[in-house]
């Protein structure tokens, strides 16, 4: 396990460098003008000389390869640069926001895994029955629903129509301080919506895995020995059926991040969504590169975690890959 993790980490270093190079290349080809974005409304009436001088001050007039290399060498030394769009150090921008995004993603992912596993097991227990048809139909419907649409629907129903939950933000309007109670109440809607976007995959995978396991000879043998149905389902079929789900954890990380950006935008959650949008529209090279590295690292760690969990759950799997 340690050797595999070490090899993955060594492979991640050049991969992250290539990813950041691609970010600088794509941003350089973007039609957005960093100088006008930096100047804001004042840039609408600025002359060409002023904008050219601003591009020189920002370093936007230099080839993107030069800017990428300077950023990369500085980042390896711990300096992520200065965000030109938010006028803050990149490390400060990320530090102020990433914790809230991690909280949202963590709670939503845990809800999706637990609820999806429970519904998948119930559906697999009587495949073809009414509960199975209802759960799978709902899963396929939710799978096709866009996250922002689910967010707007949940906001309209729970916040506006029922007035049961806050519509967005981190705290109540006019609150003097951030309290755990307010954060928890404001977290409910975005976490439920984000969990709902991930739920169908776990339901369908668990249903398929547990359903196939119930037809295997070891499970049939357990039933023949007179074990209770609950014991057969939870101790035999579920353990075997959950193996494919472990590999799903890592593959869902990219969509979890994408869904979190949309959900954060809908509910005005103070995560990295607003910084990502601002960096993209302003061609903020340092912030774009740092956010891309963060997202790529999360995906790589998710895949590594999936492989480790699968190997621990199934001793027949080696760690040589």
Low-confidence stretches: none
What structural class do helix, strand and pairing data support?
A: mainly alpha
The domain tally reads 2
Determine the number of helices (DSSP H or I, runs of at least 4 residues).
Answer: 14
Helix fraction, binned, reads over 70%
Adjacency order of strands in the biggest sheet = 1-2
Query: Average pLDDT, to the nearest integer?
Result: 80
Topology:
Layout: H1 2-28, H2 34-39, H3 48-58, H4 64-76, E1 82-83, E2 88-89, H5 90-125, H6 130-143, H7 147-161, H8 180-214, H9 217-224, H10 229-241, H11 243-251, H12 253-267, H13 273-281, H14 285-313
Antiparallel strand pairs: 1-2
Helix pairs in contact: 1-4, 1-14, 5-6, 5-8, 5-12, 6-8, 7-8, 7-12, 8-10, 8-11, 8-12, 9-10, 11-14, 13-14
Quick overview of this protein structure:
With 321 residues, this protein is an all-alpha fold.
